[in-house]
Amino acid sequence: MRSAVIIVTFLIATTMVSAVLFTKEGLEREAEISVKTAPDLTVQYLKAGRVELIPLEYAKTIAGVEGVKAVIPRIWGYAGISTYTFTVIGLDTSSIQYTSFGSIESGRFLTPDDAGKGNIVIGKLIAGLLNVKVGDDIILLSESVEANKFHVVGLFSDASSIYTADMIVMSIQDARQFFRMPDGYVTDFAVYVEDYEQPANVAAKMSFLPNARILDQDLLLRGYKAAYGARGGIFVTLWTILLVGAALVAFSQAVVVGHESKFEVGLLKTFGFTTLDIIEVRLVESLVLGFFATSLGMILGYVYAAYFNAPGLVDILLGWAFLPREFRLPVFISWTSVFSIYAVTVIPLIITTVVPAWLNAITDPELAMRRAAA
Amino acid sequence: MIELRGITKIYNKGKFNEVVAVQDISMKIEDGSIVVLTGPSGCGKTTLLSIIGLILTPTSGEIFYDGESVLGYSDYWKTSFRRENFGFVFQHINLLPQYTALENVLLPLYAKDSDPADFMERAVELLSKLGVMERANHLVEQLSGGEQQRVAFVRALIKDPQYLFADEPTVFVDEDTSRIIYRLLQDLRDKGKTIIVSTHDPELIKIADQIHRMDRGRLLQKK
User: Fold this and answer.
1) Which of A25, A310, A320, B66 is least surrounded, with the fewest CB atoms within 10 Å of its CB?
2) How far is CA B127 from its chain centroid?
3) Contact, B210 vs B33, CB < 8 A?
4) Residue A307 DSSP class
């Protein structure tokens, strides 16, 4: 019974924590991959402290900063299809050689010839949801509820899936028309720096530009991680469940000091078991139970997240990304997380085993003789 | 030979609930004999049995095993001595319910220096001798009270101890089992083993070589 309580407690706690931890690591890993494909710097335009459209001529000011290799205007926003919301990015195809979005699984990426032709490259999630492939057309509704037809020329691969999964990349001319963006303005500038220069140095020089807000890759990564951190509440809750589990284990171990168990120990001592023998027995028992329950919990946690897409968790973990439920959670298992989970489960179990075992083991063996009176 | 000199055991000494369980008891127990401790309930039989079996330390007095005073030795030494030389049978049988009869029998062997596999043949022999071999793989709760006590005897004898301590071994068992136990104890005595029993059972008292009557912690007489 005691063993069953420990196994069940550990299983539940470890399954939940493993699912969150593996998913959190997967998301962070995806974020790191995504940030690597981002421009060295992104420049936004601030007015009265708020981000606004940036005038195209501002590119010349940015290009004048020492160390800047290229300034590429971008227009981006969101578009809805059915109940889903996707990210639309419009790129200056004449500077396409500077941009990077990860690998293409089928078809091709945009070229300078695609400017204003309605050609798009889409993420695999969109392709799956809309059941489209390279060569197909899709209709996107603009904010003014006008239908816009686009032609799919490429499909992003699974690499960096969270970044490209819900992405539609088109030429900046098509994006301007789709978003009804006024001429002479863009959403922001993607800035690439010379190889000999550090982006942070260039960003420092740019910080003196009027109305500029500079985002580097580190800031983007921190932003991504902060987004996961905002979901940290559930993580903390689950961590607490684990600790409660450990406390329950401690309790169940303490119960071992109870009447029946003391009698059992007294009996073993009459047979010639030493105090160390009894501690050893309890320790081995707890180690086997702890490793078994924790390992099984981690497997269940992985299956829950990777194969069942963590029902109940997925919305909380992915809500920031506007990704639909159909998005498969990026699950990643690192040695660090495996070690951490073992550490927070097995080590408390060992500690909560040794003390009660010792208390038990110093039980007077006479207890076995006087069971009725004990 | 076992010799007790002036053994006294006081529980909660110096407190309001002080109890003198055993008072100034001296006796000699010859090897190869059946020694019975008898007397009314609460007279100190179990306490004395526990003291002789080195699972309870007296408040004062000395115990000699083959002339060697043993009470001054460490708990570890006493534990090892018990493991090598003693077998215990308890009034309440004390089999562990989560294990089968055979597992209970082999339990004492999991203490140091023993390989249970080496004792399997002896376990089978003893279980057969006491008529419970066919119950070997049954859980304790599936055995009758008499069968449980017979299994408890096998457990006590599995390591062929020189000394057997039995606390009221026939009090909760039927007549058939009692007869089996009397015969077993006599066989053990014939093999030179020393058996110390606390009991009210007149039939068991009949086969004893020494009978020590106790009352209120004192030894009244010896036969």
Assistant:
1) B66
2) 18
3) yes
4) I
DSSP string computed for B14-79: TSTT-EEEEEEEEEEE-TT-EEEEE-STTSSHHHHHHHHTTSS--SEEEEEETTEE-TTS-HHHHH
DSSP B209: S
In chain A the beta strands, taken as DSSP E runs, fall at 41-47, 50-52, 54-55, 68-81, 84-91, 104-107, 119-122, 137-141, 147-156, 167-171, 185-186, 188-193, 212-216
Question: H or E stretch including B8?
Answer: strand B2-11
Query: In this complex, do A272 and B88 lie within 8 Å of one another by their Cβ atoms?
Result: no
Among candidates B46, B80, B107 on the partner chain, residue whose Cβ is nearest the Cβ of A369? B46
Q: Would you say the ipTM is above 0.90?
A: no
- Encode A84-102: b = buried (16+ Cβ within 10 Å), e = exposed: bebbbbbbbbebbebbebb
DSSP-assigned beta bridge partners for residue A122? A155, A168
* Cβ-based burial of A144 (10 A; exposed 0-12, middle 13-18, buried ≥19): exposed
Q: Nearest C-alpha of chain B: how many angstroms from A356? A: 20
Characterize A54-74 residue by residue with b for buried, 16 or more Cβ atoms within 10 angstroms of its Cβ, and e for exposed.
beeebbebbeebebbebbbbb
Inter-chain touch B111–A274, beta carbons under 8 Å: yes
Q: In terms of Cα–Cα distance, which of B159, B194, B197 is closest to B181?
A: B197
Which residues have C-beta within 8 Å of that of residue B41, sequence separation ≥ 6? none
Closest partner residue to B167 among A273, A277, A369, by Cβ? Answer: A369
Q: Which of A263, A277, A368 sits opposite B112 (nearest CB)?
A: A277
Q: Do B92 and A270 touch (CB under 8 A)?
A: no
What lies within 8 Å, CB to CB, of B163 at 6+ separation is: B2, B53, B85, B86, B87, B193, B194, B195, B196
Higher pLDDT, A255 or A55: A55
Instruction: Say if the Cβ atoms of B92 and A272 lie within 8 Å.
Output: no
A:B CB pairs within 8 Å: 67
A131-165 pLDDT, tens digit per residue, is 899 999 998 887 777 888 999 999 988 655 666 77
* Closest CA of chain B from A307, distance in Å: 39
CB contact under 8 A, A369 and B79: no
| B110:A273 CB<8 A | yes
Higher pLDDT, A321 or A158: A158
Written as tens digits, the pLDDT of chain B (223 aa) is 999 999 999 998 888 889 999 999 999 999 999 999 999 988 999 999 999 999 889 999 999 999 999 999 998 899 899 999 999 998 888 898 889 999 999 988 887 667 888 889 999 999 998 889 999 999 999 999 889 999 999 999 999 999 999 999 988 788 888 999 999 999 999 999 999 999 999 999 999 999 999 999 998 865 5
Among chain A, residues having any CB pair with chain B shorter than 8 Å are: 263-264, 267-275, 277, 364-366, 368-372
Backbone angles phi, psi at A350, to 5 degrees: -65, -45
